[in-house]
Fold:
Amino acid sequence: MLYLLALIGAVTLAVLLWKAYGPNSGKPPTRVVGPDDDPEFLWKVDREVRRRPPDDTARPGPDSGDTGK
Structure:
């Protein structure tokens, strides 16, 4: 009976030590970040939008057929 209690105590101690100092200790759990939450992704999108030439479809161009008369 004493050996059974010692075995249960040893297993409990091993589990507690594994939880405290195991391979995942000290590292917070990682979270998947979506592209709309990623600051680097948002910075790249903003940079791309700023580099793009302005859209001239709002003003009639010389090929639109509007003579202005």
